[in-house]
Design brief:
This protein has about 260 residues and is α/β, with parallel strands linked by helices. The protein has two domains: about 170 residues, Rossmann fold (3-Layer(aba) Sandwich), CATH 3.40.50; about 70 residues, DNA polymerase, domain 1, CATH 1.10.150. Helix content is about 35%, strand content about 10%. A six-stranded parallel beta sheet has the order 3-2-1-4-5-6, with helices on both faces. The two termini are about 20 Å apart. It comes from Polyporus arcularius HHB13444. Pfam families: Hydrolase. GO terms for molecular function: phosphatase activity.
Length: about 260
Amino acid sequence: MPQDVQRPKIDYVIFDMDGLLIDSERVYGDVTNELLAPYGKEMTWDIKAGLMGKPEREAAAHLLSFFPDLPPHFTIDYYLEARRPLQDQRWPSVPPLPGAIKLVRHLHAHGVPIALATGSQRRNFELKSSHLGELFDCFEGRVVCADDGLLAPGRGKPHPDIFLVAAERFLKLDVGQGEVQEGHVSEKQREVRAKGLVFEDGVPGMQAGKRAGMSVVWVPDANLLSLGGEATSVDEQADLTLKSLEEFVPEEWGLPPYDS
């Protein structure tokens, strides 16, 4: 870490899941292109960049907006239903991403409060995580999914709600509601938020973490970074950008260092 960079001391950590801890974004891409191929269509990375981190139906609507000449039956509902069995076949074998198991197990072993905040539906989370107990058992049930009924409609990422729910409900922290700059968030709540660290791979998730008033480590897919421009140009900026979770140095954030 450069000598002039002073990281805040972190008390708790919240993780995204898809594309950060597990290689599930590849499944989404493969299945979508399998469904589009008969019509001569393809979801390229410049399209996919706009879907990542969005709620399911919003992401589907964004995708289909690029293909207005698809047959009339290829609606949002058709797409979501058609992809489900194809994804379900793949979720039980989706692999963890480099550094994920090491980091999560390390934080858990050292008693650092951790939670998971994912835009996945609960059923999909169960399918994606059931074979990776060494990773997901560390969260001890502290998991917020998009359809748990804990988020108001339309309040997915980049709204900060899912991270605030995870902090308040599962880590028992008084973080309040709404974006950090809003007047009803007290100074004490801002201080509690500032002690949180969010790990994300998507742009909306990175924005959500910053709008929550937490520090954010962003681990984007290399394909996303290569696009640049509108794909990654937003007002919010991550505190640290890594190529992989393997590059994360816990002690830079006041967290216990890895055992040598």
